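Job type: complex structure
Entries:
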Amino acid sequence: MNDGQSTFLDAFRLLASGNSELWNIVLLSLQVTGGAVLIATLIGLPLGAILAFKRFRGRNAILILLSALMGLPPVVVGLLVYLALSNVGPLGVLGLLYTPSAMVIAQTILVLPIIAALSRQVVEDYAAEYHEQLAIMGLSTWASIRTLIFEARHSLLVVLLAGFGRAIAEVGAVMIVGGNIAHLTRTMTTAIALETSRGNLALALGLGVVLITLSVIINAVLMAVRRSETRLSYI
Amino acid sequence: MQPLDGDRHALERQVLPIVAEGTTFVGTEGQRLLDQVDLTIAGSGILVVMGPNGAGKSLLLRILTGLVPITHGKISWAGQSSLVGNVRRIGFVFQKPVMFRRTVMENMTFVLRQFGLSKDDAQHRAERALIDADLHHLSDAPARRLSGGEQQRVAIARARVIDPEILFLDEPTAHLDPASTAIIEKMILDAKARGTRIIHVTHDLGQAKRLADDIVFLHLGKLVEHGNAETFFAGPKSKAAQAFVAGDLVI
């Protein structure tokens, strides 16, 4: 009857003791997810902004595709990346399978449609407000898009958080392409899955607590930054 | 406001005269929202575009700035058939002020920086413009935190800071109280006094009488009258304009 309680206590004890394996796992999770969100942002944000600003043939098809890809099942993405990176796959020579790089690739694919699609939605509202003003100033497409992204910066922060949330919580893709190798490709989510199946509920729960706490902290910090910025000025 | 000295773009990009011939704009449902409008804009002074709602006033303004492409007819700016993509000396003030999410000062310098001014030059020029417009005390205020009247004053100061050849105003005082309107009308007259050509859309008869040198009267997409303001108000020729000037409801 006390099992649940003691498991919780064990979890906190593990955290407090500064267990290095635990913190390695946490660090790798943040690195992989951070890397994926960074790359997906560098591609997806401009892509979303272009889709918001320009009208061209095939735009609607791309919008539909992006929305659909937002719901990509992580295991399927994991499988496809696995096939691409495996020895017999087209990118097998790179030797990336079961490395953190492979995990970043898989998560980038998962996060990119979210960031592109949501950025498009956000920037489109700003484009409606500013496009005539930008046109009067004679700004080029690129200068306009840069301006729109800058004007929308506070709203776009929420888009990045959505991407981050998707990636940090994801287990299927990183499990398949990373292999959940201790000290190498084990993340919080894959470790939780493993420890649960092993019956190490304390460690699993400890990781769960860390995962949720980290997500809350990261969201809180970024939202605080956003709020102070908007309050200072620029609603 | 002094000209943008030493700035290549500003010196090269002429806008006037704007010549519109047989300008027609057909809406998505086939209706002629602007019908065979001939208009030449050069010289100086304030041209007030009047007419009831739906007459095509705002549309005409957007066509004259190249924001909206025409369906039929011809339009040219200083002999050029296109303005698209060129940094140019046109100011436009919208009915609802479009403020960037930056400070007042940054709103001003952002526009100047697009003209290739250095940071220091832009800052210096923007400061003088804000002093001129009696807005200097708001320099560091977030532009979107200002009142509607203040935002519109910043919008006009920002449109003027590039020393535009021509300034388009699309009912800039439609949402403002008399005190703000008075300040804005003073800014418009000041711009005129410094040689900026002004095209001002309004359906406020009193404002038209206070500001206009010339009048264009639009009705149902057609240019019904165009001429000297005094002559127009003394005796409008068309039925629609007569009714409008008399204060009747023109639909």
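Summary: Chain A touches chain B at residues 129-130, 132-133, 135-140, 143, 147, 151, 154, 232-235 (CB under 8 Å). Chain A has one domain: 3-234.
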